[in-house]
Amino acid sequence: MTRLNGNVPHAARIYDYWLGGKDNFAADRAVADKIAQAVPAVATMVRANRQWIHRVVTVLAREAGIRQFLDIGTGIPTTPNLHQCAQQIVPDARIVYVDNDPLVLVHARALLTSSPQGRCAYLDADIRDIDAVLTDTDLNTVLDLSRPVGIVCASVLMLLSDHDDPWKITARLRDWAPAGSHLAISHPTADHDPDAVAAVVSTTREVGLTFVPRTEEQVAALFGDWQLLDPGLVPVLSWRPDHPPPDPTDAYYWAGVARKPASPVTRYGQTPPPARGSAPGDSEQAIDLQTTRTDPMTGDEKRS
């Protein structure tokens, strides 16, 4: 486990400061305040991102029937936490939290306690080693990989350089996830205010932190070929808000949630080959006649 060093700023503790928490050090606050000079509304933006997580979990648990979540880049616990949102709707929901800050680990073990019916686990792991995350014994004990998983990557991929290849990491997550799983990503961008965000990049680089804002196209690529839920990839304030925001671009994040399609299966357990000599349209119709599909929101199987 990484040793705690309060003299070196850490993204999770900087976020904690912006969220009004007390689990941060002078080094974290100094960087946070300097960033706020370039982006005065940064604390409001961070809170908007946090509220987006709550909306995502509510939608996935209530509308999509997701009963287990993998939260990568957990951060220091801030009420309500992801498992509290999920278990309020689905009391037996299971959650695995992942982060690599020892201070986060201490608080997670103390505060991220499950409901009696559900279950929580915390992994001290780095998203850069995604295979270690996905093969972890605790993760595979808590999560049932025969059922869909809600994967949440909220503002964590910004900590990865292009050399770390976040697209490869999310591709690995998508390959690993069972059919019907959902991937939720929020990511800072310079699309709305390039000069201000460039100043943030400079400030973080000065203290040895990685902060990589990405364009709408770069964030969209993180979802691969998964189907985005409505309203698509949008400013974080525009993703199913409780109330329409005055200006969605006031928070410099792109956000979206995508679903892994269920593999079509036939009554015989496999897709029949197209009839020899048939036209493409004919073969598609033949397959559809014997195909069972899963409704993307309810999870109910429908035969067409």
TrEMBL record:
Regions annotated as coiled coil: none
- The UniProt annotation puts the region (Disordered) at 263-304
The protein's GO terms of the molecular function aspect are:
methyltransferase activity
Q: Name one GO biological process term.
A: methylation
Question: Keywords for this entry?
Answer: Methyltransferase, Transferase
What domain of life does the UniProt record list for this protein's source?
Bacteria
Q: Does the keyword Transferase apply?
A: yes
Please give the name of this protein. S-adenosyl methyltransferase
* Protein's organism: Actinoplanes derwentensis
